[in-house]
Amino acid sequence: MLKPYTIYTFGYASRTIARLDSEVARLGAVIVDVRIQPYARRDPDFNRPALQARYGSKYVWIREFGNKNYKTNGPTEFVNLDLGSRRLGAIVADGTPVIFLCMCKSHEGCHRTELANMFNDQLGWEVKHLPHKDTAPLIESLFAE
């Protein structure tokens, strides 16, 4: 059994890649993309190739955590929860923090929260949704006009 842990979640809708950069740097985290299709129509910074180029080994797509019913708004049906969990276990085994990445603006009703809560229920892992009100402001905001 894995030790107690914290899973962070991040929805990129209406957020910038700079905000994700800030969270990854602050936490020393690996981004775990939990989308079934890791592409963003409105913001190419959140497409899989761009994320891989930007973060290298700090970005992992776990398709198995994707929601098969994301287009229909039906109940969450994960692609392969067991396989995804094994892949996640390999990432967190040394204590590396992870950020579950999805598009949804709100964590409420999003499958990333449902997924994180499953780890909370089964393993006692804490769940924190980003950005947090205690998150340090971005440096770029100092130069805003």
State the gist of this model.
The chain has 145 residues and is an alpha/beta fold. It has 4 helices and 5 strands. The chain has helices at 17-27, 48-55, 81-92, 111-123, and strands spanning 6-11, 30-33, 59-61, 98-102, 126-130.
Please tag this protein with its features.
145 residues; disordered C terminus; single chain; 30% helix; alpha/beta
Structure characterization notes:
The structure is a single chain. With about 140 residues, this protein is of the alpha/beta class. The chain has one domain (about 15-95, about 100-130). It is built from four helices and five strands. The chain has helices at about 15-25, 50-55, 80-90, 110-125; strands spanning about 5-10, 30-35, 60, 100, 125-130. The longest helix has 13 residues, at about 110-125. The chain is globular, with a radius of gyration of 15 Å.
Annotate the secondary structure layout.
Layout: E1 6-11, H1 17-27, E2 30-33, H2 48-55, E3 59-61, H3 81-92, E4 98-102, H4 111-123, E5 126-130
Parallel strand pairs: 1-4, 1-5, 2-3, 2-4
Number of domains: 1
| Structural class category | alpha/beta
Measured by DSSP, the beta-strand proportion falls in 15-25%
Shape assignment: globular
Count of runs of 4 or more consecutive helical residues: 4
Name the strands of the widest sheet in spatial order.
Answer: 3-2-4-1-5
Summarize the biggest pleated sheet: 5 strands, parallel
What is the straight-line distance between the termini? 50 Å
User: What integer value in Å does the Rg equal?
Assistant: 15 Å
Overall average residue pLDDT = 86
Give the topology string: H per helix, E per strand. Answer: EHEHEHEHE
Q: How many DSSP-defined strands?
A: 5
Helix content: 25-40%
Q: What are the segments in which pLDDT stays under 50 over at least 5 consecutive residues?
A: 138-145
